[in-house]
Structure formats: structure tokens, C-alpha cells
Amino acid sequence: MSQADDITEARLSRPSLMLKPLENKKSNAQYLFADRSCHFLLDTIGKRGYRKVLCVGTPRLHELIKLRNQEGKGDPMKSLLLDVDFREQCGDAHGLELPILL
């Protein structure tokens, strides 16, 4: 079974988990944090009282913020993703905001 055949609603809500990092690290500079790191960052941001988050090259953190808002966990946060990866545009199909491409 190919990865395309194994697309579920849960996977579509986290498109960055399905995408491989872009090869050129200098010009693409993405931070594809592990879930544990994303949860730590999000918990820390929330504990400090921030409700607006600018995610620069951090699509997984942006996705997690959106998912937590949809699930009603914690105080709602606004998140804006700035990224150069055009592949992230597919995230809007499931209520995730489109990134601003640089």
C-alpha cells in the first residue's frame, strides 16, 4: 500500500507529517519539530499567556495550534505560518489557514 492510499482524516490535519523536508537546508530552513517538541513549545507559549503566534518555518507547530483550537483544548490561539514551502498550501482543505509564502 502506498502512502497516497493510506491518507486519513487525521493525516490530512497534519500535512507536514506526510511531507519530506526540502533538500536545500540553507534556502528552505524548515524546522520540522517532533510532536514532543511541538507540545513543549505550545505548552510554554500558552503558560506565558501568548494568544497570537507567528510560526516562521515551523509548519508542525502551526498545525498543532490549529488542531488544539479545533478540539477546544486550552485557551484559543491565533497562528500565522510564514513558510517558503509551497507544498504547505494543501493544508487549507481541512480548515487550516494557508501559509504566507515568502
TrEMBL record:
Query: What keywords tag this UniProt record?
Result: Cytoplasm, Methyltransferase, Transferase
* Localization in the cell: Cytoplasm
Q: Under what name is this protein listed?
A: Uncharacterized protein
The UniProt entry, under InterPro entries, shows: Mlase_EEF1AKMT1/ZCCHC4, ZCCHC4
Q: Which organism is it from?
A: Hucho hucho
Provide the primary localization.
cytoplasm
Q: Does the keyword Methyltransferase apply?
A: yes
Q: Which GO terms describe its molecular function?
A: rRNA (adenine-N6-)-methyltransferase activity
Q: Which GO terms describe its cellular component?
A: cytoplasm; nucleolus
